[in-house]
Design brief:
The structure is a single chain. The chain is α+β, with helices and mostly antiparallel strands. It has five domains: about 155-320, Beta Polymerase, domain 2 (2-Layer Sandwich), CATH 3.30.460; about 325-485, Four Helix Bundle (Hemerythrin (Met), subunit A) (Up-down Bundle); about 500-605, no CATH class; about 695-855, Beta Polymerase, domain 2, CATH 3.30.460.10; about 865-1015, Four Helix Bundle (Hemerythrin (Met), subunit A). Helix content is about 60%, strand content about 5%. The protein contains 43 helices and 19 strands. The strands form six sheets. Strands 2, 3, 6, 7 and 8 form a five-stranded mixed beta sheet that branches. Strand 4 and strand 5 (about 230) form a beta hairpin. The longest helix is centred in the N-terminal third of the chain and has 31 residues, at about 150-180.
Length: about 1000
């Protein structure tokens, strides 16, 4: 194999197109590397790996393992080096169930203990080597996750967990050794003294990079006591020095984690560790603005965690003061000026590149903007006391402290910068942040991120400008930013007559703001500025108010803005529409003379940032959707299919980008149509689900042949071994399968093909590879962001064997897997499965088999075991995935959430569906009706479950319509609740706010659902 690899490398060097055939088990891998970024370097890495491998060692030939190894080899020299050093790392990719899932801290601890087994407890060098080897094993695994899965937050969390485990075990190792040598550390009362490592910065926020330092502050219980002849300070100083050395110094495996202690009290001049009381005295006396930023992300990471929590409780009022003095605001403004100057100072010139961390528009500016708003408002809004940047961004949006477009631009830029940072560091294992302005590394990085280099250049430039523009608003905000938004108060009925005063130009700024606050605007100052902007445009909806009858239209506009669920958002979008539409007065005439249209538009603008953006980007849709009578409440699947097929048929067959943009444009129009009728009350919840599900099915059904034609043109037609044409069916699961999709839903898909064999083209491949590429291309076509946006995110984790299984599976293998190896939860998943695209005959055949398997084949578990297994699985999901905290409820995974209802329904379906065909419904609501009809659930609990399901899905619907993204978290705090409550139709009452009533309804509903769940599974 080495000789064949040498031949291919020589052919590349000569500029020839190599033929990777004849490499046996390496053929598929070499094919992938030749097609990928930097083929020559990738093949050199493979050659090194082959040379280090034992004879007859297995190599991946398809699926996730092949993708993972190809991505690692094409990433640069560092990862191939680590793979070659320890062949077990490559072998782990073949069967590693850890790819794509979050390893728990306990799992990591057990893995480390296994590697330390048999170690001499006094051999520090061997200990450091094994810890570093353990770190590198998981470093390689997480690099594969970074390349294959959209798991930025997961990778940061796992790297942080990895650092915690290495740090904690090293502290234990060193402290035990030193205690044996000099004596155990004891307090004055004879109790053991304890040490904690508090993680700061990205480590504290669970956002570590692949080559991040770990910023630590070491604290021990107290100074009163001894460790043999040493004082406690001397003892722990030696421990911390040794821990830092073992983790940071290079050994044959590299190093574990570089430790940075400069954030400790007094910085690099201070002692390496401090007693709890000593640290508290320091911050009481000398704590400054950088200390506030540092401790905002602080988290006890290793050692005595309770001691770290005690320090955090002490620091919280310092980091998040409930009342802000001018001095604190001045400090934040000074920090802003320093970071702005720093960003300007690292413009390193065209020869070197842009510093993605410190440069203008980079990571540091995003993080500081978020942290500054947290420092300013976190004392009064505890939900903002959040360590992670993206989670804090979400909460800033919920609380109305940033606009939706700012949230989106900052979040998307931050994710891109962090992925660039990861790719740069994984290239050669250095802690670098400089993105070259040009050259092979920049092009390689762009292609590794799945982007065309020219498009990548434009995206980086555009996102840098967006971040700098938003960051600049913080510097000009002054002290006014301290006051923040006031809770929304929803006005009932028409706007007060005093609103007319806003049109007369006679009020001073303070009176205008008071009036706007009373009218329901949370950000009254900004609202006043925006209204002035509209009034300054003589063609706009308020600038025309001085002209006779137009005054009535302007007043109606103000009244409708105040009635909208979120007046601030509605006004922001109205201004954007005015600036976009300009002096073309047709739209203002229409709104002025059509009160119902005006009300619908302001309701849309106050309910959904996503739909508002769609409308603003395409104002011509007003004619199509509202005026010309085309906005039908419901359209059949066939009607949507025929219209979209006609649009695609009008394009040239080879205009793939035009076809994909047409698909996206059609989806946007239809989502806007559904959203308008949803907000206007013309579509019930079930109608929204069915329309969005049918739309997704139409998109899938018409995207599939485009990708099929492209694939067969390239590889030929797939055929079975006896010459028959082979086909594939796409099955929808989850909400798509049950026709319950809502806004922003992912599409849960599995791909099943008919027969083994190969394609008949000149570049023939076996059917497994053909259909895998077909599925990957289909997923890419659905999820790629083009001019008209993206279609859908696709989730394939419900396929046989989950993330470690192949992306596509033959129908025979699909049946064999489920009959012999599937878990009970996988039988649950299949309840909702139905064909949505591809070959309808194969789809129907698989659908019939699924129904027989799920409901008629005897399950391996008896009813009691089935109930216990399902309950165990449900409670594990609640514990590990719900993520409920002081800031949010999880509508889906939390106690009493949607999953409780699904599990109740599916338990009865699996238990009784064999003898009662009426229970074989995919929709939870239809199945509940059947369960009541068959007498399996009494009418009262059935009604509670149905009402609870509709209530929770309605909240989910309103959460998702805002941004067209998956969302299942209901804010607990008042400010976020008020906006959501108004979007759900709650109104102000004398004795309670909308948010308070929404929260009470949510708590009562989930309690009743959980009570029924306990009766079924308890």
């Amino acid at each position: 194999m080495l000789d064949a690899l040498e031949r291919i490398i020589r052919e590349l060097d000569r500029g020839q197109t190599p033929d990777p055939s004849g490499l046996g088990p390496l053929t598929a891998l070499v094919h992938a590397l030749v097609r990928g970024p930097s083929p020559r370097e990738s093949l050199l890495g493979l050659r090194r790996l082959v040379a280090a491998a034992a004879p007859k060692t297995p190599w991946p030939v398809d699926g996730v393992a092949l993708e993972a190894l190809a991505a690692l080899l094409s990433s640069g020299p560092e990862l191939p080096r680590l793979l070659s050093r320890r062949p077990g790392r490559r072998l782990a990719l073949l069967s590693d169930s850890g790819l794509g899932r979050l390893w728990s801290v306990d799992e990591l601890r057990h893995d480390l203990e296994d590697q330390l087994e048999g170690l001499d407890p006094g051999d520090a060098s061997a200990f450091a080597l094994r810890v570093t080897s353990f770190r590198n094993d998981h470093y390689v695994r997480l690099a594969a996750c970074e390349f294959l899965f959209p798991t930025l937050e997961q990778v940061g969390r796992e790297l942080s967990n990895l650092a915690d485990v290495c740090l904690d075990r090293t502290m234990t190792f060193v402290e035990r050794a030193l205690s044996i040598e000099v004596g155990a550390p004891l307090l004055g009362d004879g109790e053991p003294c304890r040490l904690v490592a508090v993680a700061m910065g990205k480590h504290g926020a669970m956002e570590l990079n692949f080559c991040s330092d770990v910023d630590l502050v070491f604290l021990y219980s107290a100074d009163e006591g001894q460790a043999g002849a040493l004082s406690l300070h001397e003892f722990y100083s030696r421990v911390c020095q040794q821990v830092t050395r073992l983790l940071s110094e290079a050994n044959p495996e590299g190093y574990s984690f570089r430790v940075d202690l400069r954030l400790r009290p007094e910085g690099s001049r201070g002692p390496i560790c401090n007693s709890l009381a000593g640290a508290q005295r320091y911050y009481e006396t000398w704590g400054g603005p950088y200390d506030r930023l540092a401790w905002l992300k602080a988290r006890p990471a290793a050692g005595e965690l309770a001691l770290g929590e005690e320090m955090l409780r002490f620091m919280r009022p310092f980091v998040f003061p409930r009342s802000l003095h001018a001095e604190v605001v001045d400090q934040i403004q000074e920090l802003y000026r320093r970071i702005d100057a720093e960003a300007r100072g690292v413009g390193v010139g065209a020869r070197q590149g842009w510093n993605v961390k410190l440069g203008g528009g980079g990571i540091r500016q995003v993080e500081f903007l978020v942290q500054a708003l947290q420092l300013l408002h976190g004392g009064k809004q505890p939900a903002l006391q959040e360590r992670a940047t993206l989670a804090a961004l979400d909460k800033l949006l919920f609380l109305g402290l940033i606009a939706e477009h700012e949230h989106r631009q900052l979040g998307e830029a931050y994710e891109l910068w962090r992925r660039i940072e990861h790719r740069l560091q994984l290239y050669d294992g250095r802690q670098t942040h400089v993105l070259p302005d040009a050259g092979p590394l920049r092009e390689r990085l762009a292609r590794h991120l799945g982007r065309d280099p020219a498009a990548f250049d434009r995206e980086v430039a555009s996102r840098r400008l967006q971040v700098q523009a938003i960051f600049g608003t913080l510097g000009s905000a002054g002290e006014s930013v301290v006051d923040g938004p006031t809770p929304l108060a929803a006005p009932d009925g028409p706007a007060r007559p005093a609103l007319a005063a806003l049109l007369q130009g006679e009020l001073d700024r303070e009176d205008r703001m008071t009036l706007l606050e009373r009218a329901g605007f949370a950000q009254a100052e900004r609202a006043a500025e925006l209204l002035e902007l509209l009034a300054d445009k003589p063609w706009g909806p308020l600038g025309r108010a001085a002209h006779g009858a137009a005054r009535r239209g302007a007043r109606s506009l103000l009244e409708e803005l105040c009635r909208s669920p979120d007046p601030d958002a509605a006004l922001n979008h109205l201004v954007a529409l005015a600036l976009r539409y300009g002096p073309h007065e047709g739209i203002w005439d229409l709104l002025e003379h059509n009160p119902s249209t005006l009300r619908l538009l302001t309701s849309l603008f106050g309910s959904s940032d996503h739909l508002a953006r769609l409308f603003i980007d395409h104002p011509e849709l007003l004619d199509r959707l509202l005026v010309a009578g085309h906005a039908r409440v419901r359209r059949s699947l066939q009607e949507m299919h025929d219209e979209l097929a006609g649009r695609l048929g009008a394009l040239a067959p080879d205009d793939v980008e035009g076809q994909l943009n047409t698909l996206r444009r059609f989806r946007n129009e239809e989502v806007l149509r559904v959203g308008l009728h949803d907000i206007a009350g013309g579509l019930e919840l079930d109608g929204v689900w069915h329309q969005l599900s049918d739309l997704a099915q139409v998109i899938l059904a018409l995207t599939f042949p485009l990708i099929w034609n492209e694939a067969t043109t390239r590889y030929g037609t797939p055929r079975s071994k006896d010459g028959r044409a082979a086909t594939m069916a796409v099955l929808g699961l989850g909400k798509l399968g049950s026709r319950e999709l809502t806004y922003g839903s992912d599409l849960d898909l599995i791909f099943v093909y008919s027969d083994a064999g190969s394609t008949d083209g000149r570049r023939g491949v076996d059917n497994g590879e053909f259909f895998a590429r077909l599925a990957q291309r289909l997923i890419g076509a659905l999820s790629a962001a083009l001019e008209e946006g993206r279609l859908y995110e696709v989730d394939t984790r419900l396929r046989p064997s989950g993330n470690q299984g192949t992306l596509v599976v033959s129908s025979a293998a699909f049946r064999d897997y489920h009959e012999s190896a599937a878990q009970p939860w996988e039988r649950q998943v299949l309840i909702k499965a139905r064909p949505v695209a591809g070959d309808p005959n194969l789809g129907a055949e698989v659908e019939r088999w699924i129904e027989r398997f799920v409901f008629e084949v005897e399950p391996k578990l008896d009813p009691d075991e089935l109930r216990r297994e399902m309950d165990r699985h449900r409670r594990r999901m609640e514990k590990e995935l719900a993520g409920e905290n002081g800031g949010f409820y999880n509508l889906k995974l939390g106690p009493g959430g949607l999953l409780d209802i699904d599990f109740i329904v599916q338990y009865y379906q699996l238990r009784h569906g064999g003898r009662l065909p009426t229970l074989r419904a995919r929709s939870s609501l239809e199945a509940l009706a059947a369960l009541q009809q068959e007498g399996l659930i009494a009418p009262e609990p059935t009604a509670q479950l149905v009402n609870g399901y509709r209530f929770l899905r309605r909240i989910e619907n309103r959460l998702r319509i805002v941004r067209d993204r998956s969302a299942a978290r209901l804010p607990r705090q008042a400010a976020g609740l008020e906006v959501m409550a108004r979007r759900l139709g709650y109104r102000q009452q004398l004795d309670s706010t909308p948010g308070a009533r929404l929260l009470a309804d949510y708590q009562q509903t989930t309690r009743s659902i959980r009570a029924i769940y306990e009766r079924v599974f308890g």
